[in-house]
Amino acid sequence: MSKNVDVKRAKILDVAKRRFAHFGMAKTTMAEIAKDLSFSKALLYYYFPDKHSLYTAVLEHVVNEMLSRVEVYMKKAMGVEGILLYAVESRMTIMRENYNLFEYSSSQFIQNPGEMGKNIGPFFERIRDQYSRILKKGVENEEIEVDDFNETAELLLFSLMGMRVGILSKDLNDCLFPTPDEFDLILTKQQKMVKIFLRGLRSN
To answer: Which regions of the protein are recorded as binding DNA (predicted)?
Structure first.
């Protein structure tokens, strides 16, 4: 892929992210995105054949941003607890900033878990791998003891996801996604869970 194509694709993802985050998936059209970009619809469809493929690419773009923030923080931070707390907080911040984007993915998962699972599964694995490396850093610093990094990272992520599901007061048949007002409460609970979880891994 040429550098020019890379630049155009990045521009499309950035503009589409803003529109999806503000208006949501259902209320956004490919024609509107093309107009925002000053592109022809034909050019937009050259890069992304339909709105679903564009949405999936935008979701990946946002997840990459989430992971990158944590990677940058990891390079300058030492303590495993501080890194994990930052990872949880930055994830919540990005979800809040892109509320309509993530709300749609959650509602689609409820309606069609098999199809959305194909898209979300790889994202979960990448986040798990990052958490696994954070735990490994904690072991290298002799802060914690971990037998299986991937398994322990999965357990931590499942615990954090459980905090979110447990707090939501919606009917289970509805979209399991927090309202904007619920983010702070969920973040507080997740931060406490990180501390409790790490306490069980302390080497001392």
So the answer is: 29-48
pTM of the model: 0.82
* Cα-Cα-Cα-Cα dihedral sign, residues 72, 73, 77, 81: negative
Name the burial class of residue 1, with classes exposed (0-12), middle (13-18) and buried (19+) by CB atoms within 10 angstroms of its CB: exposed
202 strand-pairing partners: 144
pLDDT of residue 127: 93
What's the pLDDT at 194? 95
Residue 8 makes CB contacts below 8 A (sequence gap 6+) with 47
Q: Which amino acid is at 180?
A: P
Q: How many residues does the chain have?
A: 204
pLDDT, tens digit, 9 for 90 and up, residues 3-16: 565 888 999 999 99
| Contact criterion met (CB below 8 Å) for 176 and 110 | yes
Tokens linked to 180: 């904007």
CA-based nearest residue to 43, from 15, 74, 81, 80: 15
Distance CA 199, CA 180 (A): 30
Give the CATH number of domain 52-199. 1.10.357.10
CA dihedral sign, ordered 189, 193, 195, 199: positive
Domain locations along the chain = 52-199
Q: Outline where the chain has alpha helix (H).
A: 3-23, 30-37, 41-47, 51-76, 80-97, 99-111, 113-140, 149-167, 183-199
